[in-house]
Amino acid sequence: MTTKKKLIVMGANGFVAGSVLAQAGDEWEVHAVSRGNPLIRRDQLSWHACDPLVPAQLTQLFQEVKPAAVIHTAAVADIDFCQAHPETARAVNVDLTRTLADLCRDTGAKLVFCSTDTIFDGEHAPYDEDAQPGPINFYAETKVEAEQIVTRLGAQAVVARLSLVVGVPVLGAGNSFLARMIATLKSGQPVAATEREVRTPVDVITVGRALLELAAGNHAGIFHLAGLDRLNRFEIAQKIAARFGFSQKLIVAQAVAAWPGRAARPRDVSLNNAKACKQLKTPMRTLDDGLSLILKMSETPLL
Ligand SMILES: NC(=O)c1ccc[n+]([C@@H]2O[C@H](COP(=O)([O-])OP(=O)(O)OC[C@H]3O[C@@H](n4cnc5c(N)ncnc54)[C@H](OP(=O)(O)O)[C@@H]3O)[C@@H](O)[C@H]2O)c1
Q: Which of 32, 92, 112, 158 has the fewest CB atoms found within 10 Å of its own CB?
């Protein structure tokens, strides 16, 4: 009997984690870690109810599971919430990452950490992996600090910087702007989107596959997981509306939203994905190809 490698997925009820859990192949014995309830049951997948902010609970989990790898998706990713609640943002985005990095260093587990395109200032795109971070809001500051912690693990760790992730939550949970947008369009309401913010959107299926590949292989350092297209949010929304069969007239260009307490957003955080294209078997895609994958998945669910 061959022993399977053990994989811990942190933040298992999240959007990106759902794609990882749904696509983890036979080579893995998967351990989903969440504060919430299990989303699916299947062979080779165990759920662990855990408050990840209590280090003793994670220490015990590592002792029980003995993971070969950890994919760390847990984060407070709402930019405005982070700005208004810096203690919570720091506890989850920085302190939890430090606890996991310490546990991975002590046990030899590989750590794949999800970071973000918004660590950059938005004025010098496209950014490659060596570009200098320039955070302009507190969320981005926490991610930069967490990246530095993870990077210190050297060959044992990967920082996966995700561009704007597009998709329907594979397991039905998590924070998806596309799901919210489709719900609004279905109700016949317009969707406002700004032309000011430029991204290299990547589909959630590709992100899940790439994170699993990074966890399984000898890759180390920073990887940009980003799509092949450089588009503003208005263009992204138009493409989504068209592919999901809604009138593009429902997409309205919006001046940059501003209200008291709204955190600053970087303008253009397009990522150069050449390294991922060269070193990963998982292909990075255009938004059209990513949307095709998402639509195919809706017709033929992964689970
Ligand atoms: N979605 C994007 O467009 C995007 C773009 C760039 C980077 N990222 C990064 O990718 C990762 C995954 O993002 P996502 O879109 O999947 O986010 P998500 O759907 O909001 O999921 C994040 C998960 O983090 C955990 N979490 C949230 N608040 C927490 C708290 N206060 N204490 C403990 N755990 C908490 C939750 O897991 P449980 O409920 O299971 O405990 C939650 O489901 C994040 O690190 C994010 O910063 C995402």
A: 92
